[in-house]
Design a protein that fits this description.
The chain is α/β, with parallel strands linked by helices. The chain has one domain: Rossmann fold (3-Layer(aba) Sandwich). 47% of the residues lie in helices and 13% in strands. It has 7 helices and 5 strands. A 5-stranded parallel β-sheet has the order 3-2-1-4-5. Helix 1 runs parallel beside helix 5 and helix 1 packs across helix 7.
Length: 190
């Protein structure tokens, strides 16, 4: 019985890894660029500081920056959904604590993923390469939304560095299950 349980747990963890790895590589291209933007999608945040998931997303965004890019802008997106402060402002404070204070733009009005994408479009149009960072299945969903809203900008989507093997491993099972429930098969074409 223990062996069956152990195999089940290992199988679930590996399935979560695979689903997140695959999602991190969907709807992206190898886009060479001088000017890139890294968009960070916020997560419902209660309290006066960025929660663990928003802090992780900011760290993933910071490691997503291409050091060869002439300009790399960070766009933090998320309104005041779970508290009086916007998710964007809380993530900006965390990014500042990690040393990132230059070229940071806040989009602090969106309340859903669709709105995140819709509201960042005017902020990202000028860039050659667009990276959307969140947990991999959420980032994939946002890339699909961008393809629906602005197919021309979807051509500029590149992969961020939000996926790392074994990082947040138990949570990846939940992310994958939630992503499956929320319509994994949705088409990016309008």
């Amino acid at each position: 019985m223990r062996r069956i349980l152990a195999v089940g747990i290992v199988g679930a963890l590996l399935w979560g890894e695979y689903e997140n790895w695959r999602a991190s590589r969907e709807f992206v291209r190898d886009v060479p660029a001088e000017h890139e933007v890294v968009v960070v999608l916020g997560c419902r945040n209660r309290g006066g500081r960025a929660n663990a998931l928003n802090r992780w997303r900011v760290r993933a965004a910071l490691r997503s920056r291409d050091p060869r890019a002439t300009r790399s802008c960070l766009v933090l997106s998320g309104g005041a959904v779970g508290s009086a402060a916007s998710e964007a402002a809380l993530m900006a404070a965390y990014a500042a604590s990690r040393g990132r204070t230059d070229d940071v733009v806040l989009e602090a009005t969106s309340r859903t993923t669709w709105e995140n994408v819709e509201h960042v479009v005017p902020l990202v149009e000028q860039f050659d390469r667009i990276k959307i960072v969140s947990n991999p299945l959420h980032a994939r969903k946002a890339r699909m939304y961008l393809a629906r809203q602005r197919p021309d900008l979807a051509e500029r989507l590149a992969r961020g560095a939000e996926y790392r093997f074994a990082e947040w491993m138990p949570a990846k099972v939940a992310f994958a299950a939630y992503g499956r429930l929320k319509g994994r098969s949705a088409s990016p074409i309008p």
